[in-house]
Amino acid sequence: MTSEHPPVLKATSPVDLLALVPYLLGYHPGDSIVIVGLHDQRVRFAARTSLPEDPDTPDSVAQDVAAVMARQFVQETLIIGYGPQEQVVAATDAITVALHGVNLPVRDSLRVTDGRYFVDWCHAPCCPVEGIAFDPASSAMAAHATYAGVVALPDRESLQATVAPVDGPARTAMRDATDRAAQRMAALLHTPDEPAPAAPSKGGTPDLDEVVLRSGRTAVADAVDRYRQGGHLTDDEAAWLAVLLTHTPVRDHAVLHTDGQEHDMRLWLDLTRRAQPELVPGPATLLGYVAYRRGDGAVASIALGRALHAQPGYRLAVLLSEALAAGIPPSALDDMSTP
Asked: In principle, which of 20, 118, 150, 337 could form an S-S bond with 141, CB 3.0–4.6 Å?
């Protein structure tokens, strides 16, 4: 399950709500359950989880959803299931019970199947059994979101593609630049056979870890400033920063100086896509951290997934992934960075 933390928005009808969901997530969900938390009738939180494949075993998913929602400052919930009736109804029924167990009432439960929405528990004339056809694009919500620059991609795979590694000539160029960056690191450390020192140096020479950290501080500051001004890193600059981020103190320094601004997002997205596979964990974790702080849980989940695919035990990515899945709000990360 991934959690999303949308801006405060207000929906006044089922069509408004259904039109809003893709913009809350960043993509149009399919075979999913989306739970929306409301406070004073305004959307404050949304979480998405994949639709359980087995309709007989939705309880564990329901308990996870309820635990996440219980941590949010919401007063009531809405449930929207996307997919086949049998699977959706089994999951939404289980989630409704679990939410009631944590004292969160469910205002409505909707199902979306083949371009129509259904209220399966309602048998009034306003809720026909054949469902109600709807056009999300006709809602003012979609217009407001588009005007604000919020994008809803066709599906989660399209969102994943925005974080995918570059290929072709761009990949070849980065591979060559990374080779040069490795040579630069070896020259910096004066140890051609060792890419990084196993321990601080002795005998009156500077601590090699401190040498790397000084270089990392400079590279991070230059990169942040470049993207703040609308520029981007050259291949050699990107490769050098990616190599420096393999040193934990440099990575931690970057975290401390990353506060979730748009230029931070562009920087770490760019570096995540361009870094060589073995260098992905650092930039991808920073991208996940920035996206998490911005309330973009979907991108955060994808970025952290890339970091953990490259290095399954990458500690910071593990911690952030666990916090995201638990529905810990972005404000909990404030102490990790400078004002």
From this structure: 20
